[in-house]
Amino acid sequence: MSDGDSSDKDRGAPRRWAEGGPERLYVVTGGRNRPAERVALDLVALIVARGAPGPGAHPEQAAILRMCTNPLSVAEISAYLSLPASMVSVLVGDLIDGGQVEVRAPASAAALPQAAVLEAVIDGLSRI
Amino acid sequence: MRTGPPEEDTLSASTMAAVKVVIVGGFGVGKTTLVGSVSEIRPLTTEETMTQASVGVDELAGVESKTETTVAMDFGRISLNEELVLYLFGTPGQERFWFLWKGLFEGALGAVVLIDTRRLEVSFDVLGRLEERGVPFIVAVNTFPEAPKYPLEEIRAALDLPEPVPIVECDARDRADCRDTLLILMRYLYSLTVATTRER
Ligand SMILES: Nc1nc2c(ncn2[C@@H]2O[C@H](COP(=O)(O)OP(=O)(O)OP(=O)(O)O)[C@@H](O)[C@H]2O)c(=O)[nH]1
Ligand SMILES: [Mg+2]
User: Fold this and answer.
1) Which domain holds residue B161?
2) B78 touches A: beta carbon within 8 Å
């Protein structure tokens, strides 16, 4: 890694696996962190919690539910939890299965016509 | 455990969809600077563990060995309107990871290839790979004061860049410059979309 990358890291979250190591997370995700078994969520899929975490929720999933009262991308969840995006994808996948979160698909995956999306992007960028 | 975005970095509840753009370029070319210049949030870092089949003795022995590497990527965000948000991802400096990162280019609207005229050669490979994958891109020349100045058309020729692909100058530290670069990418993408629609 370059100097640039290490300075990026310094600005980032606390060290990885600070709380219990990857083994514990493996337990949390039931060891299903394999891409073939579930379609990975896009980095910019927006996650919105449908409610507060229940008493038995795993800490990571409870944290996701708490931070997603408003929409938040998988990439942002990954950054705030200091977890790889693929791991977040698995954790969120379980929340989707449990009906605890709603997913707002990326515009590119939605049925929106590309030209309309681009017009909106151009409009929005012109105003910043 | 971290608790999520600070109040001011919360997305509007009405946000319905997101789009993404990838900023690629070699070591220290200004990717993080560009993302930071236009982002409405302090840039964040996401990471991914990448598995690579390693080449060497093991391969000769017919045994495939795998190496795991954690790669970090910084990103920023621009809310475009009440319903749509744009994310900008800056690739890590090491090119060999750019295309290993599953889901980075998938679904991206397009890419900005940032280049430094002192190290044009690092861009050759990525331009080819983007073309191969059908990821539309523009080229932005980061105008470092120490770097030699060349006319853009000379750089276009050196990169063997097809005529319709825009090439622009951009100071990655300048917010307006970065916004304009993104606008040029979007207008180019729009022209491609309209052209495809007409062909049908
Ligand atoms: N003069 C000048 N300096 C710049 C410009 N863009 C970036 N820099 C400087 O160049 C250095 C590297 O910029 P970064 O934005 O970290 O580059 P990067 O592409 O993210 O680097 P890596 O992630 O390490 O590959 C920093 O010290 C920036 O301040 C520019 O347009 N002009
Ligand atoms: Mg960087």
Assistant:
1) 14-52+68-199
2) yes
pLDDT tens string for chain B (200 positions)? 558 999 999 999 999 999 999 999 988 899 999 999 999 999 999 988 877 665 554 445 555 567 777 888 999 999 999 999 999 999 887 777 777 777 788 889 999 999 999 888 888 888 888 888 889 999 999 988 888 889 999 999 999 999 999 999 999 999 999 999 999 999 999 999 888 766 65
- The minimum CA-CA distance between B47 and chain A, rounded to whole Å, is 5
Token readout for B174 is 């300048």
Predicted-complex ipTM score: 0.89
Which residue among B102, B106, B189 sits closest to A118, beta carbon to beta carbon? Answer: B189
Any domain includes B1: no
Angle between helices A21-28 and A59-67 in degrees, nearest 10: 70
What secondary structure letter does DSSP report for B119? G
Range of the domain at A26: 18-127
Among all residues of chain B, which has the CA nearest to that of A6? B72
User: Quick one: which atom of ligand 1 is closest to the CA of B27?
Assistant: 25
Q: Which residue has the tokens 């003795």?
A: B57
> Which CATH number fits the domain that encloses residue A89?
1.10.10
Residue A1 in domain: no
Q: Domain total for chain A?
A: 1
In a domain, A9, yes or no: no
B176 touches chain A (CB under 8 A): no
How far is the C-alpha of B178 from the C-alpha of B36, rounded, in Å?
10
Indicate left, alpha or beta for A39 from its phi (over 0: left) and psi (-120 to 50: alpha): beta
The tally of domains found in chain B comes to: 1
What is the CATH number for B31?
3.40.50.300
B43 close to B76: Cβ distance less than 8 angstroms: yes
